[in-house]
Amino acid sequence: MTILKEIERVVGEKGLIIGEDVLNRKAGIWIDEGIYADAIVRPKDTNELSQILSICNKFDQEVIPHGGLTGLAEGAITRKGQIAISSERMTLIEEVDEVGRTISVQAGVPLEKVQEEAEKYNLMLPVDLGARGSCTIGGNISTNAGGNMVIKYGMMRDSVLGLEAVLADGQIVSSMNQMLKNNSGYDLKQLFIGTEGTLGFITRAVLRLREKPSSINTALVGLNSFEHVIKFLKHMDKGLGGNLSAYEVMWKNFYEVVTASKSNHTPPLPLSSSYYVIVETMGADQEKDSVLFEKLLETALESNIIQDAVVPHSESERAKLWSIRDDVEQHYQSGPVKMFDVSMPVSYMERYVEEVNKNFAANWNEYKCVVFGHVGDGNLHIIGGVGSDDKKATKLMETCIYDPLKSIKGAISAEHGIGLEKKDYLEISRSEIEINLMRTLKKALDPNSILNPGKVFD
Ligand SMILES: Cc1cc2nc3c(=O)[nH]c(=O)nc-3n(C[C@H](O)[C@H](O)[C@H](O)COP(=O)(O)OP(=O)(O)OC[C@H]3O[C@@H](n4cnc5c(N)ncnc54)[C@H](O)[C@@H]3O)c2cc1C
User: Fold this and answer.
1) I need a surface site. Which of 39, 215, 246, 304 has the fewest CB within 10 A?
2) Which of 373, 385, 423, 420 is nearest to 402 (CA)?
């Protein structure tokens, strides 16, 4: 019996996609190509997945975990001869524990569905990102996703209390812990968080929910130097006593393109600043919090830390401000570009961006180097464009961006992961001993190297 026949016996016809239908599916949200795998397998639960992996392991069959395919590091790319295993039928929200403030879900539940479910109980999952409607909890965990609230609540890792994963040989590791504290030996769930589907396939998770804040204050401010960007961060963080929940910076060229006349956005602040920051706080008393927030903005204005500020007065005005920051796609309209995701201590950022620009200028007369990001978390996104997306140009652009990280011990990935895209540069951010230990773990958990092989490292 062929492997696909064996798999079909487990998942039935509904659980298996083969032939043209595989290629007709898009390989990723911003990828124009189809899926090149031999089949897409769609188990409905952990038990089916366990049987599938045990079959694949027996046949040395390479498998690639698929969530919502919104990942930005080529972590879910497949090739001929491989099988994609999708969590798209594993979409059950199993339980909300209102008192313990947890939600238990299957891995294929989209992030937005979890956010909506939590909201029914006046709770919230403090992880949010632009792809919320399509990305899945399994994908968020396996990439250790970041997003806009990391400064207050941490990354996805900080919201995972328990999880269940299936190992390459089909063994089910169920650690569906619901407690905040559990130091009973090794915390095995960490093996599967941020490891991009190379050590196990996540099937279920217990996520930590927080009380939904009853007050939100937001502002867009303009600043004229990066020194002021840092000063303003400190000013707000200190003044708000732990309630700062977002500090998103747009360099002028980001703001300019997104608010240009042909876009959907009107600029809420004039183009006279060098940097634009969306600052947001979450708390429990709207009246008091607004007074404090506006007072902090006023003192920042008076002491010339910021040049200008606009405060939204309704939820729709707030959404409009955020839509400027979220409209990354505007930068994809004029020629080929590539998005980078790096991190470093905040104090190195200005110098780093200058060096990247210098490197671009040394290689191209015309180029795009648009910078924005979660500066409060030390995370910058850079959209680079040099008029070509051929291999040579891409490689040179990567060198321009990654080389300056070496001397400042920065990271080639802050939140998107390594996948195929960045594995050639892993040694910039990880030592030989660290990479060897990663290989040892991989070998121990997946000796036949069937799970997402070739991703992260060779
Ligand atoms: C518009 C937009 C905005 C974004 N903003 C952010 C942001 O602010 N912060 C951020 O961190 N990311 C961001 N991303 C990237 C992306 O959304 C995240 O990486 C997301 O967590 C991926 O989830 P997914 O379900 O789409 O995973 P996929 O793309 O399907 O897979 C990503 C990786 O996880 C593995 N995987 C998927 N499911 C499982 C599973 N169940 N078990 C084991 N491995 C699995 C895959 O093999 C692959 O390696 C953004 C993407 C877009 C398109």
Assistant:
1) 304
2) 423
| pTM (two decimals) | 0.96
Buried b (16+ CB within 10 A) or exposed e, 331-361: beeeeebbebbbbbebebbeebbebbeebbe
Strands (E), 231-323: 244-251, 275-283, 308-310
CATH topology (fold) of 215-329? Alpha-Beta Plaits (3.30.70)
CATH number for the segment(s) 334-434: 3.30.70.2740
Q: Is 149 in the pocket of ligand 1 (CB under 6 A)?
A: no
Fold of 3-88: 3.30.43
Per domain, the residue ranges of the chain are 3-88, 93-211, 215-329, 334-434
Q: What is the pLDDT of residues 277-310, one digit of tens each?
A: 999 999 999 999 999 999 999 999 999 999 999 9
Of 40, 64, 72, 445, best ligand 1 pocket probe by most atoms within 8 Å of the beta carbon: 72
Ligand 1 center from residue 166 Cα (angstroms): 19
Strands 244-251 and 308-310: unpaired
Ligand 1 atom at minimum distance from 128 CA: 8
Match 């490197």 to its residue by tokens.
359
Please state which of the four CATH numbers 3.40.1350.10, 3.90.70.10, 3.30.465.10, 3.30.420.130 is assigned to the domain occupying 93-211. 3.30.465.10
Tens digits of residue pLDDT in 120-148: 999 999 999 989 999 999 999 999 999 88
